[in-house]
Amino acid sequence: MRRTFFLISALAVVVLAFLSVRLMENRGQAQAAKPQATPPDFSGIWLGKGIQSLSPSDPMGKKPTGSEPDISYTPWGLQRLKAAKPATGPDQTFLNTNDLALKYADPDGYPRASIHPMRFKLVQNPDFIYFLYEYNQSYRPVAMNRPHSPDPDPTWFGEAVGKWEGDTLVIDAIGFNDRAWLDPIGHPRSESLHLVEHWRRVDHDTLVNTLTIDDPVAYTKPWNGQLTFKLDHSGDLHESIYTATDELRFKNDILNKQKENQSGK
What we know:
Elements: H1 2-33, E1 44-47, H2 75-83, H3 100-103, E2 120-124, E3 128-133, E4 139-144, E5 159-165, E6 168-174, E7 194-203, E8 206-214, E9 223-231, H4 244-263
Parallel strand pairs: 4-5
Antiparallel strand pairs: 1-2, 1-9, 2-3, 3-4, 5-6, 6-7, 7-8, 8-9
């Protein structure tokens, strides 16, 4: 009798274990079969304002003085800022600029590449989102749902990884070099720059990027900026490559016109 009881008990345990495993399998299959939320579609050609600052306190593109209420500079950052000679904006000095992107046709880098009077195209798939810039035919890949490399090499555009949080694309970028400005008016960046972006399509024709700039070498605390882009319907991107010889030719044309105007007085 006791042996029969033990056999029945053992059989009951086996049956319960089997049913538990099957229940877990069915639950896992149900979760796998559950449709995932489809991320919003950001694809298209976008255009922002050409001459603007990342700083909300100075959206008109004037050269910063180092006293913006929303930005606190380190000595290194302030020195870099004061040394900058932008070629655009109200305080421009085109002929004497030390902007490497204009003087030597160096890449704009990021986020400056988005602050441009020319367009960019967004192409997205589950694994990557690509920013294709019309100016200088450059591009920025954003790898989705993966971690950063252990120690990325410093580059113009940095290493960007992304994920979806509801209707917002969150991009985390590190691995920048210190040879580019954050914007056309001279905000500096260092190799310690950590950039976090939140992209939202607030309506069909409007894309907003809210950025957090965390660079302890250039700034004593993180600060925020915002860029707005409008959907462009004027056609696909065109080739627009800027070279050092183009810069020299353009500068010589300006100098020659100045000489002609002076001689004609």
